[in-house]
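Progress note, sequence design subtask.
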């Protein structure tokens, strides 16, 4: 009994000392620092709110008052009836399909490209295979030969090294002599499946409008209903296409090329300096450089291309790292080039630097993570620092509502989408800092894993397999997410016991979401 009393007394002394140190440090150090953090977060939140409100107003005006692209620009359908001209009236088009170990989906994009409604003698299909798996390479080459035997002009291209990754493959593909006569190049990733009329609907914009460099189609997702993870992604990407791309196209004839599902004028690529591999967002890099040369872009919301969303949490995290790190790194490298540019006006420079890059690619990630996952929970431990209710609740609710307009069918998932986006904001913020500081993983390129019909086919061939638990540490267990879950649980518990703000309801829900992510129960879990 004496030993137990001694241990209890020791624990009590340690707890008392920690409490005393907390009180000593809180007033002179923690309170001022936390107040500054709150002010900074509120400023960032207002920047994001104004940006979202601006885009919301613009998109309404665009939908109500602005003419559709085929009325704003000259557009005439391709004429098949002129027998004298024949296929010579059609420009020669290059289709590039970059691949890397795409075992599950390679047939999809090759088949879709070969079925495009375009004269076969005016179409060149180029499969750029950087695969390292010899079995996959043989499979892709065999598929190309199969289509070539049907009379399609399809070429299988490989490189000795993967230098430059996707940008390197696309750049190398344009160097071959057999593509010199091509005026336009359309790019489809391995999981993309365009409709047969894709070229007939997009190329007239390029033919009749010599200042247009890019026509971008909208992504649609064949596996959006596969799991909750794909539904969350659909909500985010639908907002990007429905609002961000449409606003950029309508107001400044500029937006970020999405890397696939779009068609370029090759002359514009050449004038902009070609493909560069200095960041992991070679598509955005090319788009910004071409825009600075005075080229215009057109986004067609009704030109839809089916594709696949990453359905495993690991693949999604790697994709988001690349999509967050790359823009921040590109911003670091191009901001002064944009400022010094003489060919675009000040308003467009402001739009590209402030709206396109700074708010959407940097501030949006940081305020989501720091404000709602760090600063707001910390204020529960430091009651001397208060966050105005309009900043903690009202403005976030308005921003979230504006974000939901792209996917009305998922409005009932909105609250969970917020919690999940807060979890992902940690990864995006970390990647953003890596890009801004050009740290170790700044140029890390991990190809997004596509499952295609692999799981579906396995289910048909065998009895359902239980989800694999995987190793204790590795792909499934994520200590950083679990660490944030513990931190938030402590903040929420403190609010329950001693606080008066009742934010613990939100905090505990965020704890659950971080915990689910931390144990890897997000998305499709591939059976081992």
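Output:
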């Amino acid at each position: 009994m004496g030993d137990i009393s001694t241990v209890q007394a020791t624990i009590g002394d340690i707890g008392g000392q920690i409490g005393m140190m907390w009180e000593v440090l809180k007033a002179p150090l923690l309170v001022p620092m936390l107040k500054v953090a709150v002010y900074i977060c509120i400023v960032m939140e207002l920047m994001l709110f104004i940006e979202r409100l601006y885009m919301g107003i613009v998109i309404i005006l665009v939908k109500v008052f602005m003419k559709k692209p085929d009325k704003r620009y000259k557009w005439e359908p391709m004429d098949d009836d002129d027998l004298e001209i024949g296929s010579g009236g059609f420009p020669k088009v290059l289709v590039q399909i970059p691949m890397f170990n795409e075992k599950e989906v390679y047939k999809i994009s090759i088949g879709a490209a070969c079925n495009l409604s375009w004269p076969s003698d005016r179409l060149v299909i180029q499969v750029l295979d950087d695969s390292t798996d010899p079995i996959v390479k043989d499979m892709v080459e065999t598929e190309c030969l199969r289509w070539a035997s049907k009379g399609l002009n399809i070429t299988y291209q490989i490189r000795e090294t993967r230098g430059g990754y996707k940008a390197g493959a696309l750049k190398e593909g344009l160097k071959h002599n057999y593509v010199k006569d091509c005026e336009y190049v359309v790019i489809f990733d391995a999981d993309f499946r365009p409709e047969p009329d894709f070229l007939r609907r997009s190329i007239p914009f390029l033919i009749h409008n010599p200042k247009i460099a890019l026509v971008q189609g909208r992504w649609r997702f064949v596996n959006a209903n596969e799991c909750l993870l794909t539904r969350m992604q659909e909500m985010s990407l639908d907002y990007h296409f429905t609002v961000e791309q449409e606003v950029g196209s309508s107001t400044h004839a500029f937006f970020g090329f999405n890397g696939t599902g779009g068609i370029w004028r090759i002359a514009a690529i050449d004038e902009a300096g070609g493909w560069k591999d200095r960041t992991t967002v070679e598509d955005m890099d090319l788009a910004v450089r071409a825009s600075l040369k005075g080229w215009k872009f057109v986004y067609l919301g009704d030109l839809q291309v089916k594709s696949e969303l990453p359905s495993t949490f690991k693949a999604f995290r790697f994709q988001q790292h690349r999509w967050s790190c790359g823009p921040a790194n590109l911003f670091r490298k191009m901001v002064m080039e944009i400022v010094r540019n003489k060919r675009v006006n000040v308003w467009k420079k402001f739009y590209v630097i402030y709206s396109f890059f700074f708010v959407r690619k940097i501030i949006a990630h940081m305020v989501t993570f720091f404000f709602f996952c760090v600063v707001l929970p910390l204020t529960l431990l430091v009651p001397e620092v208060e966050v105005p209710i309009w900043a903690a609740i009202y403005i976030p609710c308005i921003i979230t509502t504006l974000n939901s307009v792209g996917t009305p069918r998922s409005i009932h998932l909105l609250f969970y989408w917020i919690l999940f986006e807060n979890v992902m904001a940690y990864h995006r913020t970390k990647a953003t800092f890596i890009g801004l500081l050009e740290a170790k993983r700044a140029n890390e390129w991990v190809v997004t894993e596509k499952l295609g019909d692999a799981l579906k086919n396995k289910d048909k061939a065998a009895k359902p397999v239980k989800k694999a638990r995987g190793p204790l540490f590795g792909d499934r267990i994520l200590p950083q997410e679990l660490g944030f879950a513990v931190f938030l649980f402590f903040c929420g518990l403190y609010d329950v016991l001693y606080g008066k703000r009742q934010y613990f309801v939100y905090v505990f829900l965020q704890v659950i979401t971080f915990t689910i992510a931390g144990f890897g129960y997000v998305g499709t879990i591939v059976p081992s």
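Confidence is low (pLDDT under 50) at residues 459-472. Work on this subtask will continue into the next period as scheduled.
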